[in-house]
Design a protein that fits this description.
The chain is an alpha/beta fold and about 220 residues long. It has a single domain, classed as 3-Layer(aba) Sandwich (Rossmann fold). It has seven helices and ten strands. Helix 3 packs parallel to helix 5. The model has no long low-confidence stretch (mean pLDDT about 90).
Amino acid sequence: MIELKGVTVKSGSFVLPNISIQILSGEYAVLMGTSGRGKTTLLESICGLRRVAVGQVLIHGRDVTRWSPADREIGYVPQDLALFPKLSVLEHLEFALRLRKLSREVVSERTRELSEVLGIGHLLSRSIVGLSGGEAQRVALGRALSFRPSVLLLDEPLSALDESTRYEMHELLRRVKQTTGVTTLHVTHSVSEAESLADRCFWLAADGIQERPLSQIG
């Protein structure tokens, strides 16, 4: 579960004020709104990359507002993917597992499992450089899911993909939800994406955040 209680974030002259939402365990929520309202800022506040000035961030009932990003155990896929050009696909899938000093056997089994679910087994020895947009998205998603987070944050993960690849990723994200049960908050500008994936939709505007029925978005 993700819960924000009266969260205010300040970044220079920009203020994201008094945000309160609750996303239940296992739900797939979409966050929409016009550009510049602070959707990315909100995701970064949940995962600990931005300091919360006022309010609380709770993950499964625990107040993590002052916790470091690593301690929150949240999987995050930023809009630019933040892949490491010197690492192979396999090394990306292994990255968070090795940081947690898991055994070689556990790392090997988890990366095999992920590569099968994401359909990237044939890419494991490849460099990140030269991957297609869809392939790179799958790698970034695999890195975020590798350590079995209970919460997944996605910042416009499909915005740069062509229509056919975007449809494939819709299918993949639905499969990830079904197989992992991970609580997900997904930022998008796409109404079709929200309709395809979301259990619930939130709209961020100048006067705050509110839940909207999927039939009323756009």
